[in-house]
Amino acid sequence: MFLVYINDVDTGLINELLKFEDDTKVYGKVTDWSDRENFLEDVNRLVNWADGWKMEFNVKKCKLMHVGRDKVNFKYTMKGNTL
Q: What is the rounded distance in angstroms from the CA atom of residue 79 to the CA atom of residue 83?
């Protein structure tokens, strides 16, 4: 039933989203500054969606994972906290 409740969480996102019960993952390829900005916009959309539904992401449990050989030193934040 919870999946029906969160069914619209991915509306308007640029990157891909995986959702399962209380676990949400956003993923996408980030190779330049505009990709980073798009990713941050998606994070902000998710935060706004959660605020609108009176829900919260546990920012302390939110993590960022980089996959690949190239080191991209972009900083990502969620609600003012660095991921």
A: 10
What SS3 state is found at 26? Answer: strand
Task: Determine the pLDDT at residue 22.
Answer: 73
CA distance 37 to 40: 5
Name the pTM for this structure.
Answer: 0.80
42 burial (CB, 10 Å; 0-12 / 13-18 / 19+) is buried
Residue 81 lies in a domain: no
Query: What residues in the chain have per-residue pLDDT under 70?
Result: 1-8
Q: What sign results for the dihedral spanned by CA atoms 26, 30, 34, 37?
A: positive
Tally the domains of the chain.
1
